[in-house]
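thought: fold this chain, then report.
action: predict
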Amino acid sequence: MEKAPTPPLLDFRNLRVMRGEKIALDDFSLRIRADEHVAILGPNGCGKSTLIKAITRECYPLALPESSMSILGQDSWDVFSLRSLLGIVSNDLMLSCTGDACGRDVVLSGFFSSTAIYPNHTVDPKQLEMAEAALAELKISHLADRPVCEMSSGEARRVLIARALVHKPRALLFDEPCNSLDLAAQQKVRHTMSALARSGTAIMLVTHELADIVPEIQRVVLMSRGHIVADGPKEEILQVERLAGLFGVSVEMARRDGHYHLW
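observation:
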């Protein structure tokens, strides 16, 4: 019997999403296969955050006859079930992970959709084993007992990646993963993204930083003012003239070993 095809990670068609009175996404269509590594690139204010909130079910599109949206083949989701299949690493989450929670507890909190372990949470031995495995996979077991308030921002970001990995999700969504990190921490996060992509975890990267697009990402989608303005192979999309138009400034670009840099 022939195996059924794997449903796409995302299949958004003709979406319109409002943020208050403003149209944030308009006539927005995007299809991403379950095994793809894709970057969504665009300036601040282009609709990237709204796209993420649509994926995580924090924002919903208008109910229009021509619109449809599905994630991993389903058009309706229990949010907690979705979180176990799609790991999120975001700045919003980074800002909420403060205080005395240790690295292990932050990773374990991924099972409870929180950012720490609280008295109402019961951690079973299997969850603890999976948390230790996620820390080990990222080579940060030494952060297990360290409070987040004593970590560098780069260490805390890698703990958040372990938190997203703890369920062994089908895909990881990175939202501006290197924002506010120093150069060394940026390199470590990007190396982690590359390693995860090579291991078979689908990567969806949302960023305004060209340097975040690791070599394993071969498809790039450009966003501007709530629309997709280009979508295709990385080498075809990442052209100086196209990026200058996207960001509205004169730019120069360099490429080395599969990495791109813009200035």
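thought: worth noting. The chain has nine helices and eleven strands.
final: tokens above.
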